[in-house]
Design goal:
With about 200 residues, the chain is mostly helical. The chain folds into 2 domains: about 130 residues; about 50 residues, no CATH class. About 80% of the residues lie in helices and about 0% in strands. It contains 7 helices and no strands. About 15% of the residues are buried.
Amino acid sequence: MRLYSALPLRAAGQAAGDVLLVVWIYLAVRAGQAVHEAVLRLAEPGRRLEEAGRTLGSGLGTAAARASDLPLVGDQLGAPLRDASGATGSLVRAGQAQQEAVAQLALVLAVVIAVVPALLAIAVWLPRRVRFVRRATAAQRFVDGEADLDLFAVRAMAHQPLHVLARISDDPAGAWRAGDRTVIRDLATLELRSAGLRPPPRP
């Protein structure tokens, strides 16, 4: 399997593209983490509300217990305090609900910011890399010697633009039929280079 081109400049470009993809994904993940941490700070009022509810409820509960110990009026004083202590549970639940909502929002935003850019980059990068690897690997199996160049010369005449073929010969098909090895090699070199390969050394 050939992952990179045999041509130095093209291989350098492919390697740079791979590195840029990794850097892009890393930056996307870091951005998602930063957004997650920033949004979680919005849960601070909810935490304070929960703590205030617990503190108030605890204080009222303690006061109710002490009031109940008073002779004669203990029950009358303790009952309202116990009711008030129980009512603080709504403050605690409200604070917890706010924290949960903020945590869910932070998670969703972090995933969207981290995953969507990464998937878009992979969607652009992956098909091109897969096409190159498949084409270069398949072509590599047929390049063993000078005799194999005929196949790539024919493919060049079928795939390369006409103005490119004209630079090699005014009649590339005729030269190929006549067995002109120079033209055949030049045509094959065009096709091999487009696949990221070099022609075999001259005999």
